[in-house]
Amino acid sequence: MAGIGTRRRSRRGRAVVVLDRRTVDYDGRTYPLTLRRNPRARRMILRLDKGEDGAVVTVPRGVAIADALAFAAAKRAWIARRLDAVPARVPFVDGAKVPLQGRNRTIRHEGSGKGAVRGAGDEIWVRGAPARVPALVTMWLKCEARRAILARVEPACRRLGKPAGRVVLRDPRTRWGSCAASGNLSFSWRLIMAPAFVLDYVVAHEVTHLAQANHGAGFWRLVETLCDDVGKARDWLRVQGRSLHRFG
């Protein structure tokens, strides 16, 4: 994480500076706050940070830190309301409940030794050093995601008569899948935690882009030939999708 005064580059190459890290208090609770100067900004902007763990005020050139702090203080109720609505983080540790295709499984650490993970009923058994449990569970979930996604991509491509390129897994925050002009498909590995009908939909959506680059009526007709619960899945992602980023 950037420290005080750390610079990074904005999209057009201008320096964005973290001015300060503070907290704001509201109704007996404390919330993290970051002040960040962006020379391209025209006004102060308040939003949650990318991880939804705190608030960020974007400060234009020429606006004093004191004014930015006053702006954030005036918005304390908004900050508290938004952050309180974010689901709690669930680390991948012994005893944690983690969804797998929509069904909660409990992580069980079963001792040290060579790292290994296995699913059994409603439990995920992990063998290895306790400090390695989060990494081992993450790797296992990614493997489960790849298996489940490939099992859907291949028949969907056959039905459309369109071959896919490489299938890669990533961890983006703003999209669940993408289809490149080359035919390569990319998916969020976190989809393995969503119900199966959600994964069905996202795969159908991206595979359909192999045949239709737009989101016109023809595109959606093709998606519906590959997936039964389009509306239900889109609603689930809209309402609950961000909760998947709170795991791990």
What does this structure look like?
With 248 residues, the chain is α/β, with parallel strands linked by helices. It has two domains: 7-84, no CATH class; 97-246, Metalloproteases ("zincins"), catalytic domain (Zincin-like), CATH 3.30.2010. 33% of the residues lie in helices and 26% in strands. It has six helices and twelve strands. The chain has helices at residues 65-74, 76-84, 133-160, 196-208, 217-226, 230-240, and strands at residues 7-9, 15-26, 29-37, 45-48, 55-59, 97-100, 103-109, 116-120, 123-127, 167-170, 177-179, 185-188. The strands form three sheets. It has a five-stranded mixed β-sheet. A four-stranded mixed β-sheet has the order 6-7-9-8, with helices on one face. A three-stranded mixed β-sheet has the order 10-12-11, with helices on one face. It starts with 6 loop residues before the first strand and ends in an 8-residue tail after the last helix. The relative contact order is 0.10.
Write the layout of secondary structure elements.
Layout: E1 7-9, E2 15-26, E3 29-37, E4 45-48, E5 55-59, H1 65-74, H2 76-84, E6 97-100, E7 103-109, E8 116-120, E9 123-127, H3 133-160, E10 167-170, E11 177-179, E12 185-188, H4 196-208, H5 217-226, H6 230-240
Parallel strand pairs: 3-5, 7-9, 10-12
Antiparallel strand pairs: 1-2, 2-3, 4-5, 6-7, 8-9, 11-12
